[in-house]
Peroxisomal trans-2-enoyl-CoA reductase
Amino acid sequence: MRLIIEAGRACDLQIKYISVLISPGAPVWAVQQRIDWQDCAFMFDRDLLKGKRILVTGGGTGLGKEISMGFAAHGAHVFICGRRPEILEQAVGEIRTRSGGQADALVANVRDPDSIEKMMADIWNTGPLTGLVNNAGANFLAPTETLSPRGYEAIRSTIMDGSFYAAQGCGKRWIAAGLPGVIISNLVTWVWTGSAYVVPAAMAKAAVHAMTMSLAVEWGPKGIRVNAVAPGPFPTENAWDKLNPLVETGVGATQADEVPLRRFGKMDELRNLMIFLISDGCSYITGDTISIDGGHHLAAPSTFAGLSKLSPEDWQRAREAIQASTRKEKEGRSA
Ligand SMILES: CCCCCCC/C=C/C(=O)SCCNC(=O)CCNC(=O)[C@H](O)C(C)(C)COP(=O)(O)OP(=O)(O)OC[C@H]1O[C@@H](n2cnc3c(N)ncnc32)[C@H](O)[C@@H]1OP(=O)(O)O
Ligand SMILES: NC(=O)C1=CN([C@@H]2O[C@H](COP(=O)(O)OP(=O)(O)OC[C@H]3O[C@@H](n4cnc5c(N)ncnc54)[C@H](OP(=O)(O)O)[C@@H]3O)[C@@H](O)[C@H]2O)C=CC1
């Protein structure tokens, strides 16, 4: 909680500065929304994604919700999925209201291929998708020697299996119908650097990086583009609960001060890259993983290497804090 407040404070500073210019006295969230849409409107035509139908896995929270918001605001019909119906319904309401665009939610568990297949069939019943964003993710800090098979499996299956089955579900339908398509996976810069203490996530994201290059070649002749983005730190509630649960866990990966651009990423910046990559204007880019991290991974503090100073007692407290966050999430799940 402390660290979320810190991230919020860093964000507030930027927002306050701009709020003086735009709307003095407006609540911070309202100013933020107005700034977000202004920036997007300057960057792209608001009809850029008209006619597109895009699934964003894990689109009910965090980066997935923000990306979905950007697509819908540029004319796309977005579909979001996750395991918590209430969270998804809230997100759909927010996306429709803020973007003025179209959004629908489906409950699905990307760790389960049958659940993904059912979701794809349900979506295709109303028309084909034109794009997929593999965004659903799972992660928590832990010394690798303490991980149980179930802990490893939870992370690997969400990231690696989920991205594979979702890509395959779309790809096979596009190929059968002779339709083009676009796939973008949301990775992390650890695909190049690795990271201590989040080894299953670093491994699984690297696997999806390999899938990106491989499928770009296999499906390129069929008109299917496959790319990925590798963000640096963009603070979200869930990611920070799982990756920065204690005062002691504030090291390189989740800190802004060693990013060469000296700040966290902004949602608008990620949205702009995603809108570009999924649009027809980007038709000659495939097989690439594009970093969006303010130069973080090149300056080398972008991992959790600094956590080697934690004691076993610190790790126990970290584990309890992370698991309290997971328990809170689980209360809302129906899949
Ligand atoms: C340079 C960049 C900087 C920033 C990079 C940010 C990169 C971001 C990556 C992210 O993806 S952040 C996303 C965070 N959001 C989530 O993780 C949402 C989804 N999370 C979940 O579903 C859970 O948190 C889960 C634990 C991953 C899986 O849930 P599931 O219901 O399957 O789990 P459980 O039954 O609760 O646990 C399974 C297994 O895992 C063990 N475990 C859980 N927490 C810990 C821990 N902290 N340490 C060690 N082990 C843990 C748990 O004990 C279970 O194992 P068993 O005990 O049953 O053997
Ligand atoms: N925040 C950051 O700084 C960075 C994030 N990323 C990546 O961005 C993505 C989003 O992260 P972020 O927004 O921070 O975190 P969130 O936890 O907010 O997002 C993860 C989303 O995935 C969904 N999800 C998790 N497991 C499953 C599952 N089995 N089936 C369906 N949906 C699932 C969750 O919903 P539910 O639990 O309801 O199923 C949630 O909406 C992740 O892939 C992450 O690795 C990459 C680099 C940096």
Notes: The pocket of LOHRUJSQ (ligand 1) is lined by residues 137-140, 142, 146-148, 150-151, 154-155, 188-189, 201, 232-233, 238-239, 242-243, 253-254, 296, 302, 319, 322-323, 326, 330 (CB under 6 Å). The first helix runs from residue 2 to 22. DSSP finds eleven helices and seven strands in the chain.
